Amino acid sequence: MKDPAAPAGALAPTDVDLRGEFAGFRLETPLLAASGCFAYGQQFAAFTDLRRLGGLVTKGISPAPRFGNPVPRICETASGMLNSIGLENVGVDDFLGEKLPFLRELGVSVWVNFFGTDFETYVECARRLSAGQGIAALEMNISCPNIKKGGIEFGTVPEVAHRLTRACVEVSSVPIIVKLSPNAGDIVGMAQAVSEAGAAGVSLINTITGMAIDVRKRRPRIATTYGGLSGPAIKPIALRMVHQVAKALPELPICGIGGVMTGEDALEFLMAGARAVQVGTALFAEPNAIMRITEELRALLAEIGSADLHGVIGCLEAIPPEPPV
Amino acid sequence: MPYEERVSAAYFEARVEERRSLSGGYFVLQLVADEATPIGATVPGQFVMLRGEWGRDLLNPRAFSVFEVDGDRRFSILAKVFGRGTARLATAAPGELIMVTGPLGRGFQAPRAGRTQLLVAGGVGLPPLHLQARRAAERGTPTAVEMLYGGRGRDDLLLVGDLSEWGVPHALATDDGSVGHHGRVTELLEARLVQAREVGEEVEILACGPTPMLAAVRRIGLAEGIDTSLCLEENMACGFGVCLGCAVPVHGPRPYRYCCTDGPVFDAKEVRW
Q1: Which of B82, B88, B242 should one mutate to test binding to chain A, selecting the residue with the greatest count of A CBs within 10 A?
Q2: Fewer CB within 10 Å: C terminus or N terminus of chain A?
């Protein structure tokens, strides 16, 4: 319904339709909770209405449970934080038995993030998880070290990512979205490699490797020395990578991730070419951040006169050249 | 009991009502919510996550043990400037908006009849034990607890007058000898345990303070076979079991438990230090 006080032709936030689709499935809003910032959802039930999320991405699941890294595991940095949690998770069996039923009942898009420690365990994980009921997609984390390859990330070598994606797509009954690492040299090459291997979409970006030092103790601030940087500090990099991939591969669905704190941040990602956006680090300080961001996005779309998402996704225009002197 | 059923926390807005400076650079920040919150049900040792309208810097909320609770809208924390977050809170003006998540975590057990709780507080570890002592006094059993309180000097020992007023027995220790025992609070604890053993008094230990002090209390408690509860502190981003940053090394089938949801109060036997 239009706000009666609004000038003729202007949109009210309630006129804005946030529904969209991603890789062939529907999203009620383009805003999802990011992996690792949402656990398995239950903890948020006390603070927010989970049914109003566009969707959620679970903590990364591996075939067997993992207990995580030594402490300190996190530290705050300028407009961001470093983490090295160590991919701690309950494993496939407990996830399917104990965690998925709660998520399935929410009626929102459930993406299950997963990883392995080598080629075989990635494929096993994809096969076993995709048999779970109520999963919209699997989000494949290729940013973790490949132990057999001497610590090289799957996510930095396009040929390796291609083979891994193809093998997982073959065994999965749901779409596979590959979460790309910004630590890859050529993000477009990586996106192209996984797209050609059958990925239904890409999520970008994962955290950027960084470090911080406690000079008084002469020690790194996290136990593993290096950790993943997240938060608003990485947003410009994420936005640039989304834009590069969207320009090069306009058909490939992109889920933008990186320091989204406001509706305006989310709209930047949509304009750069993302069809959905994940909110991560912001959820720690504000467990109902996605509700606020959703309403801010609605208001902002009304303000710029866009009644739905079609008009804004990838709508970025080039800055016109200056007239000749 | 599973965490989700045990903890009834909320995310709510509160305003700074008053900021009181204490000696030694400590301050008490009193907050009040507009509406009723679950804060009234706080158990000593439980904590809140606080963050002001700080934009994109000081990104994560800060964890503070609840110091005082008054009804279901009003509570306070006691802190000292340590980093940028506490520095920012130390200048918070009355009326300033602070977002609160809490009360969170697992607190201390209340005293049991016939067993004295020795509250071992070091420096900034005072708040949960001060609240434990206050509750004992409010229940009409101030001598069910006994405070052993240590700090660097006189200025680090706060609100000792409250203990006297409540009738809670207490002993002080300072590193510089400016008040009380000249030495460590753990020396007071050892002497007190000798005394308890001589008269057959049943005691348990509740401790909060710097990690070296907690490690010493843990050794003493384990050596004497006395039930010992430690209120720990670890970096945390969320406070409710999501970021998994605040792992605490423990003995048992899993190498880690979480300061925020399994603690912050842990059985000393469980902690793998």
Answers
A1: B242
A2: C
Strand partners, B101: B11, B49
Percent of chain A past pLDDT 90, that is, above it, reads 85
Cβ within 8 Å, pair A81-B238? no
The pair of three-digit structure tokens given for residue A74, joined into one six-digit string: 């996190």
Contact B101 A287 (CB under 8 A): yes
In angstroms, the CA A299 to CA A295 distance is: 6
Burial level of A104, CB count in 10 A (0-12/13-18/19+)? Answer: middle
Please state, in angstroms and rounded to a whole number, the distance separating the CA atoms of residues B42 and B35: 16
Q: Is A144 a catalytic residue?
A: yes
Q: Which residues of B touch A74 (CB under 8 A)?
A: 235-237, 243, 245
| Cα distance between residue A18 and residue A125, in whole Å | 33
**A25 φ/ψ sector (left φ>0, alpha ψ -120 to 50, else beta):** beta
Q: How many CA atoms lie within 13 A of A60 on its CB side?
A: 24
3 state SS of A17: strand
Say yes or no to pLDDT of A5 above 80: no
State the ipTM, two decimals. 0.90
Does B10 sit within 8 Å of A285, measured CB to CB?
A: no
> Rounded to an integer, what distance in angstroms lies between the CA atom of residue A193 and that of residue A205?
16
Measured in angstroms, the CA of B256 and the nearest CA of chain A are apart by 7
How far, in Å, CA of A312 to CA of A227, rounded? 34
Position A1 scores a pLDDT of 46
Q: Which residues are within 8 A (CB) of B227 and not within 5 positions of it... i.e. 6 or more apart?
A: B204, B205, B221, B267
User: What whole-number percentage of chain A has pLDDT above 70?
Assistant: 94
Beta bridge partners of A61: A114
Four-residue CA torsion sign, B193, B199, B204, B209 = negative
Chain B residues with beta carbon closer than 8 angstroms to that of A39: 241-242, 244
Average pLDDT over every residue of A104-116: 94
State the pLDDT at residue A317: 85
